[in-house]
Amino acid sequence: MYKIYTTEGLIIESRIFGESNKIYFILTRDFGLIKATAQGVCKTESKQKFGLQTLSFSKISLVKGKEIWKITSAISLENVFSNLKGEKNKLNVFIRIVSLIRKLLLEEEKEPIFFDVVKSLYKFLKTENANNKDKLSSAELLTVMKILHTSGYLGENKNFGDLLDTNDFSDETMNNIKRIKREMLKEVNLVMQEL
Q1: Per residue in 127-158, pLDDT tens?
Q2: Which sequence spans correspond to the domains of the chain?
Q3: Would you say 91 and 84 are in contact if contact means Cβ atoms under 8 Å apart?
Q4: Distance from first CA to last CA of the chain, Å, rounded?
Q5: Which distant-in-sequence residues (6+ apart) come within 8 Å of 104 by Cβ?
Q6: b/e string for 137-166 if b means 16 or more Cβ within 10 A?
Q7: Phi, psi (5° rounding) for residue 3?
Q8: Which CATH class name applies to 4-80?
Q9: Cα–Cα distance between 164 and 177 in angstroms, integer?
Q10: pLDDT in tens, 95-135
């Protein structure tokens, strides 16, 4: 008997294989980035396909196979694409962050901060004014720094320490970023050139 694990995950991407099956890359808090299959998900009558749309936060039940996870059920909690549709700036920030994580994170590297960072950023994007480009760029910069720091690409810097430990995008955090934004951008750009 296989053990069923249930976790919240963000569907990052999917690929069709076979006639009606898909392979998914899912960022989870409990297991890191995982690759999982869903059988028959392309069929019209599939109940899982709504819970497995790209850029959806979903409650996913899985079993661990010998080589790959298998999805037994998926329920959509929030569809990022639908919720940020029409707000191109916000959606682009979210997609860039997810792409960076996909690039840096190894499969099944259990580091909950990646999921937490993405979830916090999404909550901020849902409520923030899309016209405040400075605030959006500061939130993106902070998120990128946290990802690079957790991945080991960004060393310790006393000017950034407190910012990297926070998970909120309050006005106080944004004001702190504003004061050292040039230095933060310099650090990030140096790292990104090496990736």
Answers
A1: 888 778 889 999 999 999 999 988 888 877 67
A2: 4-80, 84-194
A3: yes
A4: 43
A5: 147, 148, 151, 153, 195
A6: ebbbbbbbbbbbbbbebbeeeeebeebbee
A7: -85, 135
A8: mainly beta
A9: 11
A10: 999 999 999 988 878 888 899 999 999 999 998 887 788 89
Residue 53: alpha-carbon gap to chain centroid = 14
**Are the C-beta atoms of 147 and 100 separated by less than 8 Å?**
yes
Rounded mean pLDDT of the chain?
Answer: 89
DSSP, residue by residue, the chain: -PPEEEEEEEEEEEEEETTTEEEEEEEETTTEEEEEEETTTTSTT-SSGGGG-TTEEEEEEEEE-SSSEEEEEEEEEEEHHHHTTT-HHHHHHHHHHHHHHHHHPPBT---HHHHHHHHHHHHHHHHS-TT-HHHHHHHHHHHHHHHHHHTT-S---TTTHHHHH-----HHHHHHHHHHHHHHHHHHHHHHHH-
- Cβ pair 112, 28 in contact under 8 A: no
User: What angle, 0 to 180 degrees and rounded to 10, lies between the N-to-C axes of helices 171-194 and 133-150?
Assistant: 60
Contact indicator for 27, 13 with CB cutoff of 8 Å: no
Specify the length of the chain in residues. 195
Instruction: Give the C-alpha distances (Å, rounded to integers) separating 9 from 17, 79, 109, 118, 159.
Output: 21, 12, 14, 11, 32
